[in-house]
Amino acid sequence: MTWLPFWPPNASTTASTVDAITFGELALVILVLLLVFGMMFTFVIRYRRGSTADRSHRVAKTWYFEIGWTSATLIAFLVLFAFGAQAYLYLYKPPKADLELYVVGKQWMWKVQYPGGQREIDSLHLPLGKTVRVVLGSEDVIHSFYIPAFRVKHDVVPGTYETFWFKPTQLGDYQLECSEFCGTDHAKMIGTVHILSPTDYAKWLSNEGTEPTLAQQGAALFRQYGCSGCHSERSTIHAPLLNGLYGSYQHMADGRTVFADERYIRDCILLPASQRVAGYPPVMPSFAGQIPEDDLMKLVAYIQSLGAAKEAP
Amino acid sequence: MSAVTAGPSETYLTNESSIASWFLTKDHKRIALLFFASVTAFFFIGGAAATLIRLNLINPAGNLLGADLYNRMFTMHGIVMVWFFLIPSIPTTLGNFLIPLMIGARDLAFPRLNLGSWYVFNISGILALYFIIAGGDDTGWTFYTPYSTLFSNSHVIAAAVAVFVNGFSTIMTALNFVVTIHRLRAPGMTWFRLPLFVWAIYATSLVMLLATPVLAMTLLLIALEHGFGIGIFDPNLGGDPLLFQHMFWFYSHPAVYIMILPAMGVASELIPCFARRPVFGYRGMTYALVAIAVVGFFVWGHHMFTSGMSVFAGIVFSFMSFIVAVPSAIKVFNWTATLHRGSISFDAPMLYALGFVGLFTIGGLTGLMLATLPIDIHVTDTYFVIAHFHYVMVGGTVSAFFGGLHYWWPKITGRLYPEMWARGAAILTFIGFNITFFPQFILGYLGMPRRYYSYAPDLQTWNVLSSAGASILAIAYLMPLFYLGWSLLWGPRANANPWRATGLEWRTSSPPPEHNFERTPVVTTPPYQYNPEDDSYVAQDGAANA
Q: Shortest CB distance from A87 goes to which of B71, B337, B373?
């Protein structure tokens, strides 16, 4: 559809799904508009005052028509709803990710961290045809991560992590935008997404990547913030070990069972009192306000890497 | 032309002439005019902000206003247009003037409350002017936390207080309408003989009464968080920023129906009168109004599909949004069918009403696209949404307001307006509106976010087109100010029923006497008893006029 002057580039699997639904719905909208406007125009011309058209035998029992068009619209709307809901479920059920990105939004920039430890601001380099999972965090207000060419958008909410995914299908540079008003330079919180071929991507990574990986940086922070003082085998304090935590189900002291994802790990660090694991005393202090968002993401990446280690014996 | 006898020489406009007789009046008709002056002033303040917004967006660099001033401008436009024009516009002016006349009452149930509502409205208006003059607010009309509570350096508190106070005026007026419609209907004016405008104002008032307190609570909770450090919306205090969005939209989505339902009521009066036939499916129209008002309370989450709300909630809110569109579709079909076998004339009110139906239909259908989850993810918070709600709010509500103003102008002022000028303004409104807002659908799908003072240069063509349309629209909205002003002084005198319409408001002189009717009318007939075959009609008090 790129030949249309008013159609954005279609550069992800999501974009194809969304465009297909948009086209279907646009066709229906145009059909209904033609029907309604066609009837209106016919009537106002035919029955204009002074015309000789027959005005007797006006519809007496209107409810025949009313029930007819009420049920017709209801059915049509339910079909649209079903298509939309089905696609929404698909968009929210992420396939296995090839690459996991950590993005922090702050007034007014996007800070991107790669698993290999590479970092960028207002720019993303991504390989073609790979499923990218994004973990979003905010340092201040609500932002929204929006790539129009991919038809994906997700709000970045302070105090929690949001995750979503996409899969680029076209090489090229695409605009990244903040779409939730975030203050003075909201309109300047833009960036570029560069989709590279896998070889170019590998080249780019090696040019950038002299730092330790994100998990290694997280491991250093794990010692620096004193986490390892309790969460280790040699510790005398009764604290859970974190090996294999990520992606497991945890039983809470209050009886809940929760899935240990990024958001859970984040809450454990910042709001430990609300996330007490069954069988452990409430001794962990809160780290709220002490760890910047990008360090927090490194810690999460480290704890995540401990989970992955367990899965592959 | 009309068989109605001429009323007394003392009309509500001339019976007293002191300044106090206006500012302390308890006459609903005079209060309607007071409200009319207030909301018109705010319409032009909000319109001035819109003009600056469109001027700024002619240039992709957006350097006419720059970031901070632009952000204050769209916030001012939103707050003023939503709370100081759209919500009060039709109910407090046409509703105030017409409800007692249409149901055959002498006044609203609580005349002092009615006057009080105008004073409260003006207090909130002064607070609004204060926050504007003091330097403005840059949060957008949605006040999303934590930006509004912790990060904005603008006059957020003043703006919030203005909106908070404004809500009391809304509630006072709504309560008055509900009680009036329940208690003061003339003998024989049963529920299913009420003109649809009365039904629409009734449904609107119920929504106002039930939704507005939630807005007040939300603003109070923000104050509690600020003043006492109780964590409600601030994540650093253990609060949840999404809770604010839920509470805000629990009010603000029904508020959308507060803005559009009265417009539907106006269209339902105008179309049968100028098509000279009964409205198609009267009962269905009343059920649809009530259905919209009720279901409208359960769709607020469709503003939050990308916010991180649960997938399940997203699906439920999408479903409810499709359901609420059904009664709106019914109304469009019924208005269209009302044209069938009518005898249609194209006076200015009818042009506005037909424009209303067309633009509302486009707004509604694009609303369906927004209710479809994957499309919404792409276009929410872009110009697509802006285009959609301007089709409903401006193309719909403002068109209907102008249509109603022209239609009841002879009743309100006792003067006729110059028809050709009015038709010209109506057609110009329609043209200017479409050139302004249609390009914004395209901009939105291309991915231009809203609330951007600058944008990518390849989007300039559509933005310039939109701004050009806005200049036409501005002229079309200024025109009535001149020719209606002229009519006020020099327009020909109107008789009691210049449109040969059936409602009780036309059964008294133009302008009506202070107590509306010489004797209380007795209603014997359903509304809209027009006959297109011989151009006769039967008024609601049973008087036949051939």
A: B373
